[in-house]
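Objective 1b: paired records.
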Amino acid sequence: MASLISISSLGAEKTPIKITKPIFIKQGVWRGVFKVSEFEVPFNFEVKGKDANSAVFTLLNGTRRDDFHVKQVGADSLFIKMNTYDAALVAKIESDGTLSGEYRSLVPGFRGNSLPFTAEQGKSYRFVEPGKDIAPAANLTGKWELKGFSKEAVPNKVAILKQTGNKLTGVILQVTGDSRELEGTVQGNEFVLSGFTGPSPKIYHGKINEDGTLSGEISQGIYDNLKFTGVKDAAAELPDPYKLTFLKEGYKKLDFTFPDLTGKPVSLTDDKYKGKVVIVELVGTWCPNCTDQTIFLSPWFNKNKQRGVEAIAIGFEQKDDLEYGKYTLGKLRDKYDIKYDILFGGLADKRLVADKLPALNKFVAYPTTIIIDRKGEVREIYTGYTGQVTGKYYEEYEKKFNKLLDELIAEPIPVSGGTVSSGK
């Protein structure tokens, strides 16, 4: 063995050091494919810019665009952080210009979780190459009620779909919020939709049955699959998001104390909030609907903060560690210009959230919006968030939100200053 090492060492001494010129990802539209469980999940993206200093990496989903920065790691490797989500695309540029890599969790303790992918430049289609479409057996345009099947009870979902020829787009509504925009196709009696905007990629696939119903499966992330059936129903609706979470009998107020991003304890009883209308958001940086809600709330607050209103975001993260919360929630604050207080609530566990906020009957979903009047009393609780892609649902939410806030802001400031008591 020693002689082999010696020969190897001598050979190494005589071999000149090879300096490789860095190569960068080609500009243009790309088609990538994830391996999720046993399924392939395609996604599309565009690259603009000739180097890491100027490049913008944009995920494409129907009309939705999500931009990310590209970091070059070594001569032929890329690191694309998914903005405020603690995950990244890590890829190598192969000799033929294609990419190979993985979508990798960056959460401490979960860093073994990854999804492999490959990508080719110059391909703009998603599922089916141009010219290879099969005539669709039906048109799925409309509203569908989706019923999931699992070991535990699964709330129904509502799909709003639009089909033009073979092209299928849409959004899936559920009590936590919406799926963001999905893009796919109908081929014969089979349909498929996928979406990748930064959080784990999703795919919805299945068959159109002879009676016009749907049967299929949802795959998201790693080993997360749910079978479902679908029935077309123009009247399909989710449970009322204003009635899912409420205060227990005898309670009018909410009480909590959590540290802010400097470690300072913050409570609704603090002078800063007395006599103010307060919007409390229960969020997580890992949650796409929470991000969309933040995109709505942050500019709203910056525009209205002089009217006697405050807001507090309480972040429940994938690790129960304040330093980790400072990092993830700090990224959220900086990305979306958040001027209101951000607190760290602890681990993202629904049971723990309910334990820490005992006045609530239960905690259903991130995000949850709690609106408190000038007297410190809870006036409304809204579960989930429906973004702009949901059309009338978003418009109705925005209208009701502004109407209620205008009414509460117009109410007189209590003479006592609106001191908030805890409990019953």
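Objective 1b, second protein:
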Amino acid sequence: MTGEEKINIDEFDGKKFKNRFVEEDDNRKAVVTHYLHNYHNGVKDHFEEEAAQYIKQIVEYKNEEEKLNIVSDSALQQLLFEVEDVPFPTPENYTFKFIDLFAGIGGFRIALQNLGGKCVFTSEWDENAKKTYKANFGETPFGDITKERTKNYIPKGFDILCAGFPCQAFSIAGKRGGFEDTRGTLFFDVAKIIRDKQPKAIFLENVKGLKSHDKGKTLETILNVLRNDLGYYVPDPEIMNAKEFGVPQNRERIYIVGFRGDLGINSFEYPETLDEKVTFKDVKEKDVVPTKYYLSSQYLQTLKNHKERHANKGNGFGYQIIKDDEISNSILVGGMGRERNLVLDYRITDYTPSTHIKGEVNREGIRKMTPREWARLQGFPDHFVIPVADASAYKQFGNSVAIPAIQATAEKIINLIKDKL
């Protein structure tokens, strides 16, 4: 392989290799990046046999004439640099290992890496979220975790399982609901991984509504499975609000933590809230934002009419403007997620529309928050890379976890298991 030729993991996809392989495998990039990320520790052995084949194929594809039979040191070093020279690298002297399920764009990962953790497996099905994850961590998540082939990539010996799984109802046959009653849901796959891999601790996050979902039966079943079927000590779940951990967003989520029964842990205290009060001005863009974020006068009038109609019916629905000294509503995907978090920004100087809008740009200074402001509302640092279009970015940050609240809780978990690592 000549010094001028460059290889890149992102070139390794089904389109380029469709004539080379009989069976397509969406996890190829994940195998390679997970292998490289664990190249300096024993976890690499779990991925090595398959990853070595894929890396060889990358190099062969880039150099058809030489037909290399081995991966040269220069090629390997180049690939290692690609996964290690990233905005959020693994801590050099990590003290524990974790896996990141339903990873989204890595909110859990940032929080646990900040505490000295090493991520040894991650999965996420959304392709745009995978792009963002790869751009920031140098690692492509595995895909559908419901598939046994994907589960088989999870190594043994990690300490903490993290998962922000969706809320789904169970078909409960028994009075309380058990492991088999959750079959067909994503929680079943999480529970199966816990049963098979036996991590020391688990940390699950879900929407606040899980507490009352299906008249409380859903949460009751989850706790019954974790406590009785899997043998974990699980204290009563707590609803945590992001606004109490240093970000100006009213975002309530339920946290479920658990500890393997043989560890002898029988008490847990969730973190105390911070006295620090922050408002939207703390995350507001410092510079004038592009015109595209300002509402058109016609759309703004539509929102006003919609709110007035509901107000006449005694409802509180409709758009909302967040002042600089206030905190935002929970940022959500779809519906009125963005419209309930409009802001005032009079710094606009160019009212020329930059997109195909109906009407003209409003003169009241009303705009949407930017994706970067949404990122800050979730506690993402400003060097977090946003490589996708705005529509995808809003979706990704709206679906993410609030990093400061996750980190404060994870620190409590780690303090309890640190002498057992």
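DSSP finds 13 helices and twelve strands in the chain. Confidence is low (pLDDT under 50) at residues 14-24, 65-69.
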